[in-house]
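User: two proteins, same treatment. go.

Assistant:
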Amino acid sequence: MSDIKIIKRNLNVDTSLRDSSSPYRVKFDRSTDFKTLRVVCNGGRETQVYETASSNLPSDKDSIYFLADKSGDSFNIRWRGEAAAFMKRVDR
């Protein structure tokens, strides 16, 4: 078992190439293979980092999802479903 599983997502918040209602997928496979899930979201000049303990992840799924919205020079992440309760931003 590894300590941290890191998943990087490059966001297309500055372009019209992606529908804003189309969620980004974070595929973690088996949550029993690691202790902490770290999601690094890169959007233009900004990077946001989110984490949760693997015990918070749904055992019957291999993925969680989020939406990304442009907000001025920045972006907002909105976690979907149960992930909204346990994914916490840690880079501030």
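Protein 2:
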Amino acid sequence: MSEGVTDAPRTKPRGKRKVALFVQLLLALALLLGIWFSFQGTVLNRQSENAVPERLGALELVTWTEGPEALASINKLHGS
């Protein structure tokens, strides 16, 4: 065996590893931002809209309750 030659596996140069790590972090951040904006656009903004339609087929909305009054009504209905 000649001196100076090793059987150690070759590793990527440090610069390429840093670039690969940076790209992975950038992709993970982009994925998280995409999930956040999707969640914000579909779930969080629905609270500001009227979630109950004025009409549902032939039925018309007669009363509207919200907050503690609505919770009391639900508890009364379910016997809690």
